[in-house]
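A note from the maintainers: we've had questions about how concatenated examples are separated. There is no special marker in the raw files; a new sequence line simply starts the next protein. For clarity in this README we add a label.
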Amino acid sequence: MSMYAAGLDSAMPNGTADGQQQGPQANQACMTCRKQKRKCNKALPACGLCERMNRHCDYSDSTPPPTSEDFNALRMKLMELESRLNGGGGGGSGGGVMISPPPFPTPSSGALSGSEALGPQLPPYSPQQQEAPTQWHGVQNRFPPIVFLDKESFTHGGINIPKPSIEIPVDVLDLLGDGQSVQAIISEYFATVHKWMPIVSQMRMTRNMVNPVWEAGPDLALLFLCMKLIISRPHDGIESSQNPVYLAAKRFISLLEMSGAATLLILQANLLVMWYEYGQAIYPAAWMTAGWCVRYGNLLGINGQSEAVQLLGRPSTWTEREERHRTWWGVQIADRVVSHISQGYIMNSQEPDAETVLPVDDAAWDEGEMSAATQTLLSAPIDSPVASFPRLCQASSMMGKVLHHHLGEKIPIETARFDLASQLYLDVSALARQITEEIATVPDYITLTAPLSLTFSALATLCEPYSCPTGYGSKTASAEVAAMQIQAVDGLKTVSRSILDFSEQINAVTTEPQDLDRISPIVMAPLYAAAANFAWLVRESGDENSQMALDALRRTLSRLGTRWRNAAEYARILEAQEFQYAVGSAGS
């Protein structure tokens, strides 16, 4: 017998060469083999694997097959929601859904928690799933190539961009649930995420929900799905990248992209996906998605560039124009936040300049009060009163200047470079002081935590390279380099102490678990930066106060890790660094 035949013989059930089972057999695989997805020989009283492992072999069926009534109930639920979402047939830059009953539940009563936040646990996607042929096969891309080949002819030719005409995937409809479930998702989203990233028009969506003539489509279903995704909490034992809502959203976005769809709703939806990926530390996906959003915003023509092709056409209302403007600011902020602490930030020519208009007052936009929406330029004095989202835009602009200083400016003269860095430090510090003063007077402390966090991150990012002078010049530091190092180290100590106070205040205003749902993932980076600085001070001098500050920041990160896993990852990095330092000290 050949070696191949011998191996085949040993692989046969019960060691028979012809594959025939000997003895009684169960009619299904045992529960252990099913869970581990192993082949079961179904031998009685115990299968071969369980017998070898000396464990109990359970052939019971804990999940009875669904009945025809179950299938009919599911089919009716999916048809009901699909008729609501597909009823309008379109899905351009507008879109809403008519759902009843109108009153929204409060954030606490309507919150999705536990397994409800993630939705039912769906099996991993497989091309063999029943819906795959209708979703992926035969998808036609109707996007007109003339947009890229000859934009002048497109602009003056009156050519329209087709609306997405694909069916909403069955798993998406199942995850969204019925009308009341979608309503709860929307309510929770606007009560939490919308407070720190207000890019979706609440007024427009609310108006459309009570308007019998409403416009909807697959891109609106995608936005609802991504709203559910961003409000969901991580679960112990389940990787955030395996969240069924996340997997469904990524597949749905790819499907719409294949069809050549180009709408504002798709950009807003994928922007929420990026914040989920960033907040739950899903890399490199977060960085890639942020870049996708920049490109897609360019495609739509909402980037404020006069030469950009306006695929969406002229906005029909002030609300729609402001929504596009806010979405582009959201794209810029996302790209800045996700990559400022890595090697991956790519400088671009679309940085906002002094004449760029900030978003209008958040409350005025939410309520559609155009008369109360005063426009403010980015060059306006820092003490000019603006709302929290414009403050976040100002902080993002400051971070852009810091990144440009480190990555874009080529100033060979040390004195000139250090003078610019010092002035930039004063400018960012002024913004930090202004937000700190405002945050002490507003009734809701959490509303300004995102812009203050990004401002702290900008200060730490500016100072950190200068605190190690060998990174900027020769190994023999000049007097200017030595002076700049002292200034940078002092700056890191100052901002770290401010971040420690900021951390304690966050703990004070988030005493209830649901309070964490309103915290932006932007908060985590400065907390880690401060903790890393205190850890460095502990290693350098063994300072007891620095150790206490480090421990406090680690506790805050661990606590916030129940909402955003990037906080838990930061805490894990600090623990690993501390362990490595302890081992190194013991061996020296």
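[label: protein 2]
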Amino acid sequence: MTKSDQPHTQQTIFDTERPETRDSGPVTCLGMTFESDDARRAHFLEKLRERLRDPEFREIEGFPIGSDEDILALSDPPYYTACPNPFLEDFIRHYGKPYDSGTDNYRREPFASDTGAGKTHPIYTAHSYHSKIPHLATMPCILHYTEPGDIVLDGFSGSGMTGVAAQLCGQPEAEFKATLEAEWKKAGFTPPKWGARRAILVDLSPVANFIAYNLNLDVSAREFKKAADSFFKKIEAELGWMYETRHTDGKRKGRINYVVWCEVFTCPNCAGDIVFMDQAYDPKTGKFAKEFECPGCRAALTTRSCEHKFTSYFDKAIGETVRKVTYVPIEIEYTLPGDKTKYRKKPDAHDLELINRLGNEQPRDWYPTAKLPIGKMRDSNHLAERGITHYHQFYLPRALHALSTMWRIAGEWQNTRIRGFLKFMVEQCVWGMTVQNGYESLAFSRANRILKGVYYVRPAIAETSPWYILDGKYKRLQKMLVAHQLPLSRQVAISTASSLQSPVPDKSVDYIYTDPPFGDAVKYGDLNLLIEAWHNLFSRLENEVLWDELKKKTLSVYSDLMRRAFVEYYRVLKPGRWMTVVFHNSKNLVWTAIQEAIGDAGFVVADVRTLDREQGSFNQVTAAGAVKQDLVISAYKPNGGLEDRFKLEAGTEKGAWDFVRTHLKQLPVFVSKDGQAEVIAGRQNYLLFDRMVAFHVQRGVTIPLSAAEFYAGIIQRFSERDGMYFLPEQVAEYDKKRMTVREVLQLQLFVTDESSAIQWLKQQLVKKPQTFQELHPQFLKEIGGWQKYEKPLELFELLEQNFLRYDGKGDVPNQIHSYLSTNFKELRNLPKADENLRAKGKDRWYVPDPNKAGDLEKLRERSLLKEFEEYRAPSQKRLKVFRLEAVRAGFKKAWQERDYATIISVARKIPENVLQEDPKLLMWYDQAITRTGETGNGGNGEWGNE
């Protein structure tokens, strides 16, 4: 029954409605009607409780570590469960559209448009997470690939932004809607079909899913305000006295905003105490000096050269005597009632007495005391060295008192949804009130000054009050609820489980948008542990998909886990449908592993674009090798017709060309940007050949065509335009749109090995000297055709051995000066030593002039010859993956030294097809054979045995 068919007083949970009326009357959920939303919760909680009693249910991969009561307390079924969601099948059965190959007429090209959206939207800023994609960047993809009501899956959903995007397709903001429609019309895209999509969100972490729950299920702004007002009154009554301090007049009392604590070091020379801020902090500039003096012996010191001073104490929570790094309170910032002025003072006797009192008292409310997995989590050695081995030791005594009290008060609310949202708000204090909250220069707020992506305690920290963090957080949540309204449809199902195993039926999902953990970039599981400790519910980190040597998970283990994840995606996705994968990692090895995992699962990659999140993470902003743009991979599951035909035609030329025709249908016909047409890489002959080969290899089928035969055949069968190939029915569309642009961008160099990569980089840098961050996303897109035998090389290595980087010192090089003065009006006619020119040119790589290029070539040759020595060693039997440029350099040197035996022996370690297809290597090999009088191919039988 649809909403329009129902009586006026009844709401449908999976239809749009005003949140204020959610609990005021009957609701329907999964086809069942309940007298109220409370009754719905009670019914499904009991169903979940029954499942939790089943031992087999707890054996599901990724089942969290925790008690039944903790799981039930966090869950709001069937929308969200803090364990594997047993209602996913019901969700799909009720709302999904069964796949029928006989009637299915789905057809989409890849979404061939680079996307970007900032991180300032109120929904995005509602809660922090280690990495997330703005929902406004995801919505265009969902709108392109799906219809209203379709099911969208994200198996690595994190904070649930895919669900937000799916639901907001039914409630787009007016400005976003108008802008997107105008852009799509200009680009010639089919207009978007607005309407909510239904999302299935799966993540291993209970914390991530708790965030997803709070972002994806509606909350009454009025009810939340009422609850929050009551919450703040209660914490004022119970905690206010802890944050009182006397004004400097000795009469009035103020409210502490934060207390600055500073580490005490020991001088390595005189063993005297050094209060870090007293020696290194300049209150006028608000900055810390890198070098400071010991007040006792005047020795020049740094934090690295000093020794930590430790204090021993009895930890009542764990019943052990422990030691910790010594910190002392230095300064207090506070405000007076009715006065917005921020006052600062040194802690007085009253302040110190209060600190000592709280340090000697145990909090009366529960708090986590479990032990950290020292030695098995990121940065755990750093924490242990500072005396942090258990979760409660992240907090100074007052902070632990306050946070435990707030956690208890938030958990007392009877209404499940409001209780969850209050804890969602309080969660902001879990990190922000730890000793990781660093004290920085006066220009910064003191709230949540945490180094993102790591556990790290700085020499100066800020102990903030709850109000200092929560006042701003509460206002942002109110703004989000009132002005922007959360998705109201509740068309979402959230499951806490592994992405490698799910109850989702075969061929039941309409689209997949996913941002998996890529390699070792972010240790999500480790970083979630602190908040999980407060929920008393932990992820199964042994099931986490990542590359982490501490957990005995090598790159090969990670690759296998990713392969399993994509196999699961392939199973549940309907044939002919699409998967969008957002990739973020600066390592080529991880990029290669992802591509192989996608292909091995059966998907075919059709397009790679970029996603610019606009505001970088801490690592993106500060690390020299960080990547500031993500790659967006569009891959499809071949439809059932092709797979069925291929079973009959596998290994034949007919089957190969059938695949090419089907693949060409999946590629964009025309892509334009700024009045220019882009070359669609996937339509070039060498990539079409690679895709055909991969399709056969991944299915264990003999490849029926050589490269030469393929290139000859493609010319006969398909129409060529601008170096790209089209089906007959596609050519007319391309020709028509081609006339609307000024030009086609220059065909790009094919990057297949080190040599072509260097040429490609030279091509890029001659036109525009660029930074590593600018080059890297482009580079990753180009290396999709990298030869399997060629050793993968990191971009940094290629740049350092072949190009020069301007460090911002001295005159700006001619190459950079020419580019900047031509392309930036404000930099024209400036001398090469101008500071503005230096700043703009800093860290840009450029092609060296001939004099310096010779020196670089010598350095590079030494590196290549060193690697060649490993290849020629007797212990090296076969060279399956190697650096072709190193072999070329070694052969050249051996030829000059008339060391023909080395050329022959190394050549026979190389796959024969590689030797035969490289004219330089073949020349040296043939000449060496002639000089020694040996026979040629397989003369010693080695190749014949491969």
